[in-house]
Amino acid sequence: PPKKKDIRDYNDADMARLLEQWEKDDDIEEGDLPEHKRPPAPIDFSKIDPGKPESILKLTKKGKTLMMFVTVSGNPTEKETEEITSLWQGSLFNANYDVQRFIVGSNRAIFMLRDGGYAWEIKDFLINQERCADVTLEGQVYPGKGADGNEKVKNKTKPEKAKKRKDAEKKSNGVKEDNRATNQREEL
Prior knowledge:
Elements: H1 12-25, H2 53-61, E1 66-72, H3 78-94, E2 99-103, E3 108-113, H4 119-127, E4 132-137, E5 140-143, H5 149-156, H6 159-173
Antiparallel strand pairs: 1-3, 1-4, 2-3, 4-5
InterPro entries: MESD
GO cellular component, one term: endoplasmic reticulum
Region (Disordered): 23-45, 140-188
């Protein structure tokens, strides 16, 4: 049998053991379990549209936490991004969507949803906003209303690398430019 200790002499390990003993006898409700320990919700296959793969994702993400990345168009400062995404979050809140927002760059934010089943409805709302450049959801990039032609092309392919190579070839073939100061002084 374990020794009886005075409660004042308990250390952190003793307190952790005591907590485990108390929790072992408790019945934890399913809603109180962490998300990774909850059983997955049953999927109703009659609601799946075989022509739309998004319908399968909607059903599999229902009840699970999901994050989407949103890019604000133009070159906004972090404060402008904060204000714009705050307006979007407020509109979604008024439409009864539980969304948390985190700014991760000068023009980028993360929208975290408690229920991933609503993600595609929220995505549709966001891409119809004037200042939304794009929304990334489950690895798929959806161009927004605020995306100009260059940004839409950039999502499909990356022509920037080819352009940089061509510029480098032109410089190497033409007059060689370097960073060294010339021997001649120029009068101002």
